[in-house]
Fold this sequence. Notes:
- Chain A is of the alpha+beta class.
- Chain A has eight helices and three strands.
- In chain A, a hairpin with a 2-residue loop joins β2 and β3 (229-241).
- In chain A, α2 (16-38) runs antiparallel to α3 (43-60).
- Chain B is of the alpha+beta class.
- Chain B folds into two domains: 1-57, Helix Hairpins (Orthogonal Bundle); 59-109, Transcription factor IIA (TFIIA), beta-barrel domain (TATA box binding Protein, subunit D, domain 2, Roll).
- In chain B, strands 1, 2, 3 and 4 form a four-stranded antiparallel beta sheet that branches.
- Chain B is elongated and about 45 Å long.
- At the A-B interface, α1, α2, α3, α8 and β1 of A face α1, α2, β1, β2 and β3 of B.
- Chain B: It is found in: Nucleus.
- Chain B: Belongs to the TFIIA subunit 2 family.
Amino acid sequence: MSVIISLLSCKRSNKIVPQTYRSIIDDVIANVKVDFEEYGMEEELLLNLQAKWEARLLETRVADFARAPGSSSSPEPGEGGGNEGVSPNSTIPTNPVSSPPGPSSGIFPPPGQGLALPGRNLNGGDDVRVKAEPSDDIMRIRGGASEDVKPVITIDSNRPEPNAAGLLPGDDIIDSDLDDSDDELRDDAEGGDDDGDTDIVFCVYDKVQRVKNKWKTVFKDGMIHVNGRDYLFAKCNGEFEW
Amino acid sequence: MSGGQSYYEFYRGSSIGTALTDALDELITQGDIPPQLAMRVLQQFDKSLTECLQKGVKNKTTVKGHLATYRLCDDVWTFVIKDPQFKMEGVGAGAETVTAPKIKIVACKSGDAPEGKKSGAKSNDFS
């Protein structure tokens, strides 16, 4: 029942989302223009970035993104960059449902080879994000000349490893509670999402109070992603029972 | 430009942040822009997003539910709420209730992001 209600009215209360996202994009693009110039980038690249960003955001369908009046700033810069090996604009809008832009757990690969996500556009979708390998490489590279990492690693892995009991040698029971919740969080983060779409809120907190099992929180400046939609709030009071 | 006040990076995990990082990934992979420039764009994103949220968003919300797990680590609270019920106060349009089986809340301490530990729970960066 409440689902129906929310479906009916959700256009209303997240109406602010498109305009806020619009202003974020415009502000970012306007402010990095000088940086693109400093790096000797052509302006078309900046427009290209904006177009890709907007296209991916549209894909998410987290809000009703009508073409806002202010968005006339060349949503399709015609791929004039010249060095576009892949032309993603041709594939992205055609199948907006089949390839959601990946989990909301923004994964930022390291520079260099870590950024290679080659198959994504060519193979038409499935985000195959193999991150572990590249970051290993980076670690090795960062290690520099002295490659004597091995003894350090063994020491390291010996110390925090005793997770078998969930306890570190010096830990008391409070810490084991934390470990448990950590595990649960991990379950929540990984097992809980069907299509890589986790319901999550990003915000800052003013207050977090607990009396017995009652928690009261004051959150601010939040972005809610729930049921595939985005909502924003300036302030959010939370009341939870543990 | 990049100096001065620091801003949280963890909003990069949001829909609009993910869209941006994916777009940047693509441009870097194609060799169109250097990673350092992408970093600069993301820093600007942190700033723009924070300011736009603070200035442009006025509406209030409440959330109730069963607190399944909680954690405080490095000034970042993480809550997992079972059966959360959000009441979004529409602007003059009446309230809207949104429910879900479960939601995770990642909350950094309000105020300026402390330099050096401004990442938040889910943040990653190019370094």
